[in-house]
Write a structure and sequence with these properties.
globular; alpha+beta; 486 residues; six-stranded mixed β-sheet; 17 helices
């Protein structure tokens, strides 16, 4: 018996086949092989065509089936993870009405700010646990004002994973976790937020039927089975946003446990067992995958937009032509801690929530033409990303979170020794790296296991990175210098 997981990212779509009994990955792949393009017709905009996610999902599915040689009938269930906070709009024929407005698009910031003031800051924070900010509800408000011809054709709004589930099953649904990340869920009342729907004037018919995070949510349709080479009737049994799903993939379910990622964006995600929020709404609090009315499990999410995307920009435009990421990491290691006084502020990928939704852009500080080299710039970029993590972790500490251990998949920026040692050094936390990713987590989320312990028994710890006490002051000095440039 096998489980199939999909991870719908903004850079690529990944597929992973997991043997249910052993928990081992038997095949995985991603498409496209170059980063998926992001449409930016104006500064601060970011869109993708939902059809491109489906096309890349088809390629990834074909690849893992071919690699493994597994018959489609052997796949017991499917799970889906997705880039959070996106907005997909479909008409009554279930056709996308426009490109998806994705997570790093910042055009909706003013709409969220006005809603925050009009509904009331205390009410928003105590009921929604966030300001409406730049999330899905505010993005829909932008469409309503600027594209009334599109708004008038809407049958349902969805998050990216809900769109993929619709393509697989021909059924439209959303979870409480999804509604909470879109800022449509009232935690105090335990239902859709009347305040948000009424303030923006959204039709309640736009909201899909609510489905649990775990359990049969639909079955692969005949048309999807024909397109993908899957068995008609295969159940879709799990869906979650990428950060709650990443926490699941690292067996992070309980209060005090921390998960982190550093892909296109960077995230520190901790689980709370009680309702709480940041009074300035600089970090976000959503329903975790195991949140229920009876058991409070909330995910506190610190997100830094300018993470891996800065590193890839440095690779394309600053580092020597043709260099690999491994070679670039080696180049960075030729520069000392603190990058010889160079600081990079990494916020060049849209508005940053932890900066009060300001869009500051990326900037380089302290460069000296007779001192600094490519190695210093490459290292300063990675340090700048880590320092932005530290800045946000200080906010989380103010909420009562004690971050001593960070679990992460051995992927993306965590493959860089400079990145992970700097994070351990400046945070004082131990970092554990595991053999998992979002697609594998989605596959296991779809599995039928007796407990989390059984589902994640095969999770292998690959490395442990401890803080270096002798270097702590050097990291602290570099961080203080970096912070002065904010």
């Amino acid at each position: 018996m096998y489980l199939l997981g999909y991870d719908i990212g903004s850079s690529s779509v990944k597929a992973c086949l997991v043997e249910a009994e052993s928990g081992k990955t038997v095949a995985q792949d991603f498409f496209p092989k170059a980063e998926m393009p992001i449409i930016a017709e104006q500064p601060g905009w970011a869109e993708q065509h939902p059809a491109s996610w489906w096309d890349n999902l088809k390629s990834a599915t074909e690849s893992v089936l071919k690699q493994s040689g597994i018959a489609a009938e052997a796949i017991r269930a499917i799970g889906i993870s997705w880039q959070m906070h996106g907005l997909v709009l479909v008409d009554k024929n279930r056709q996308a009405l426009r490109p998806a407005i994705i997570w790093c698009d910042s055009r909706a910031v003013p709409y969220g700010e006005k809603a925050f003031a009009a509904i009331g800051q205390e009410k928003c924070l105590s009921h929604l646990l966030n300001s409406p900010g730049n999330f899905t509800a505010a993005k829909l408000a932008w469409v309503k004002e600027h594209e009334p011809h599109i708004y008038g054709q809407i049958d349902r709004f969805m998050l990216p994973g809900d769109y993929i589930a619709m393509k697989l099953t021909d059924e439209i649904a959303v979870t409480v976790e999804g509604l909470s990340e879109g800022i449509f869920w009232d935690f105090r009342e335990g239902k859709l937020s009347d305040d948000v729907l009424d303030y923006f004037g959204f039709e309640r018919s736009f909201v899909p039927e609510i489905t649990p995070v775990f359990g049969v949510q639909g079955r692969v349709s005949a048309s999807a089975a024909a397109e993908l080479g899957l068995r008609e009737g295969t159940p879709v049994c799990y869906r979650a946003g990428d950060q709650p799903n990443n926490a699941l993939s690292l067996n992070v379910f309980n209060p005090g446990e921390i998960a982190s990622t550093a892909g296109t964006s960077g995230v520190v995600y901790g689980v709370l067992g009680k309702v709480n929020y940041d009074p300035q709404s600089r970090v976000n609090t959503f329903a975790h995958v195991n949140h229920t009315a009876e058991q409070t499990r909330l995910g506190v999410l610190l997100c830094i937009n300018g993470t891996g995307i800065l590193n890839s920009w440095i690779k394309r435009h600053v580092a020597p032509a043709g260099i690999s990421y491994n070679e670039m990491n080696h180049l960075a290691s030729q520069s000392p801690i603190g990058s010889r006084g160079l600081s990079v502020i990494p916020f060049g990928n849209g508005a940053e929530r932890m900066l009060g939704n300001r869009e500051t852009g990326c900037s380089l500080h302290g460069i000296h033409f007779n001192i600094h080299s490519q190695a210093d710039i490459v290292r300063a970029a990675q340090e700048g990303i880590v320092f932005s993590f530290r800045y946000g972790m200080e906010i989380m500490a103010g909420m009562g979170m004690d971050i001593r251990l960070i679990r992460a998949g051995n992927a993306n920026m965590f493959l860089s020794p400079i990145f992970r040692q700097t994070l351990a050094g400046v945070s004082g936390a131990t970092i554990e790296l595991y053999n998992t990713d979002g697609a594998a987590g989605a596959a296991k989320g779809a599995g039928i296991y007796a407990s989390g312990k059984e589902a994640f028994a095969s999770l292998e710890r690959l490395a442990v990175v401890e803080p270096e006490p002798e270097s702590r002051e050097q990291y602290e000095a570099a961080y203080r210098r970096w912070k002065n440039h904010l």
